[in-house]
Amino acid sequence: MAKEPKVSVCVVTYNQERYIRSCLQSIVDQETDFTFEVIVADDCSTDGTPAIVEEYGRRYPGVVTALLRPVNVGGTRNFIETHNLASAGYVAHMDGDDLMLPNKLRRQAEFLDANLDFALVWHRINLFDDEGGFVPGDTYDLSFFPNGVVTLEHALRLGTVAAHSSIMYRRSARRTRHTGFQTLDLFYTWEYLSSGKGKILDDVLGCYRVSAQNSVQIRSMVNIQGMLAHHARYYLKSMPEQRRNIFVLALINFMVDVKNLRTTAWSFARLAIESVSLVSPLLVLRTIFEMRRIPPCSPMGSVHLARSRRDGAADA
Fold it and tell me: How far apart are CA 197 and CA 185, in angstroms?
């Protein structure tokens, strides 16, 4: 009988013909001493992506499962339903335009094996784009996460932590199987962290493609900020003990949206009123400083790597 997989790798893709082959090859090339499965869900792409996904399903039977959707269901539903299919105790996520580096799965699984009080683990990740921009993952100062440890309280204030394609979590930490609304990556990040701590490994174990064709980076920031406010309000209701940290998030994003003349400033203003708490001005200032230092590999950290070159220099 085939061994049960220890890790499920969930890959979501849509119209990524240029990238999906490299992504999948970087996954199946992982060397491990355990079995892993790869679930690839194509959301009814109109280019050559489905044929490539189907090809990998044929080439790697028993490892790669190709899920080709007959109709487009949208990014949120595609993500949720794909992760619902994961059968292993540990689950890793990959967007179809990003890459794994050698030993990613092994290093993350080893960490979770050895640290039962941690619910999830990330790693450092190189940033690159289609125009030759490149920022090495080891250049970012993440010292504001002591020993790389991330708590729910800290993540709620920041609103984001690390690249979604660097995450591996315990399947038991994911409790929400259906949402009924669109979600950002951080919706589940906050949920995982409510089950245990998170860790950012110091190893560079992946590559994140910035502003790739069809990526979330080029969507409307108003929509993204609107979802962020919605998610924070959702967790304010389910975790009222976290109101202080959600208030800091709301206050900072209100100021950011006012500065950028976004209509979502009103959503954060209402959230700040709902969660109003006594907080130290130093905590707010420190959180702003930390937000500016987080690597630009999430919707809240959108960046164009044209600002940075292969010498590793990047704007702060």
Answer: 17
The stretch 73-92 carries a mean pLDDT of: 96
- Which one of 184, 201, 216 terminates a domain? 216
User: Which pTM does this prediction carry?
Assistant: 0.90
The pLDDT-based confidence of 3 (bands split at 50, 70, 90) is: confident
Same domain (yes/no): 135, 47: yes
Q: How far apart are CA 14 and CA 193, in angstroms?
A: 28
Report the alpha-carbon distance of residue 208 to residue 126 in Å, rounded.
6
Same structural domain, 107 and 225: no
- Whole-angstrom Cα distance, residue 66 to residue 53? 6
Does the pLDDT value for residue 215 go beyond 60? no
67: CB partners within 8 A, 6+ apart: 39, 40, 41, 42, 82, 85
Quick one: 58 and 187 in the same domain? Answer: yes
Statement to judge: residues 207 and 231 lie in one domain? no
Nearest 5°: the CA angle 73, 296, 136 is 115
Distance CA 51, CA 53 (A): 6
Q: Are both 84 and 185 inside the same structural domain?
A: yes
Taking only the tens place, the pLDDT of each residue in 50-75 is 999 999 999 999 999 999 999 999 99
Q: How is residue 245 annotated by DSSP?
A: H
Where does a domain end: 157, 190, 216?
216
Domain residues for the domain of 74 are: 7-216
The average pLDDT across 159-186 equals 94
Summarised one tens digit per residue, pLDDT across range 93-135 is: 999 999 999 999 999 999 999 999 999 999 999 999 888 889 9
Please check whether residue 13 is in contact with residue 49, taking contact to mean a CB–CB distance below 8 angstroms: yes
CATH of the domain at 168: 3.90.550.10
Q: Are the C-beta atoms of residues 129 and 305 closer than 8 Å to each other?
A: yes
**Number of folded domains that form the chain:** 2
In a shared domain, residues 34 and 92: yes
Average pLDDT value over all residues in the chain: 90
